[in-house]
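Researcher: Quick test of sequence recovery. Tokens follow.
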């Protein structure tokens, strides 16, 4: 029997006003359904629509660095919404150096995508003849965190400043 696996998904390494102590707001698509990842070392991952359980305390980080917390669901500074195409997010950036730096990088277009970490609970493997690689389909997982990143494993993700 396979034990649960926590996986981080990076390639390599509406309407409410921004809170007074926020540097700005970011929104986007953190997780895409039914779209293969880039190569994960000889295979690709696909997250089946609706497979993620959104835990009670999900954090938003900068490039999966737990020392740079940008927001969290329990604080109300990160809001997640499971939709038909994936998990969308709204994030109130903190008025910290990291928050202001990220805001600048997003506005410049240097950073514009997302990644995430999840605890894999159930999976199914198959070989995709078109991609010519094994594909792991995630059937059940618990979302642990999302991250704004420059190099995601799922290029269809997005992150942009909300003006």
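Model:
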């Amino acid at each position: 029997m396979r034990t649960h696996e926590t996986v981080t998904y990076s390639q390599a390494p509406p309407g409410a006003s921004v809170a007074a102590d926020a540097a700005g707001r970011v929104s986007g698509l953190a997780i895409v359904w039914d779209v293969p990842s880039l190569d994960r070392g000889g295979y690709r991952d696909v997250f089946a629509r609706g497979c993620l359980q959104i835990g009670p305390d999900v954090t938003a980080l900068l490039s999966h660095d737990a020392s740079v917390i940008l927001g969290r669901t329990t604080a109300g500074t990160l809001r997640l919404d499971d939709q038909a195409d994936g998990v969308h997010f709204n994030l109130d950036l903190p008025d910290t150096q990291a928050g202001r730096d990220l805001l600048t990088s997003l506005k410049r277009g240097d950073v514009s995508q997302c990644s995430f970490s999840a605890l894999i609970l159930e999976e199914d493997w198959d070989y995709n003849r078109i991609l010519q690689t094994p594909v792991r389909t995630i059937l059940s997982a618990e979302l642990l965190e999302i991250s704004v990143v420059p190099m995601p494993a799922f290029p269809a993700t997005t992150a942009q400043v909300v003006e």
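Strands lie at 5-8, 22-32, 44-47, 52-62, 65-72, 78-82, 86-94, 113-128, 133-149, 160-162.
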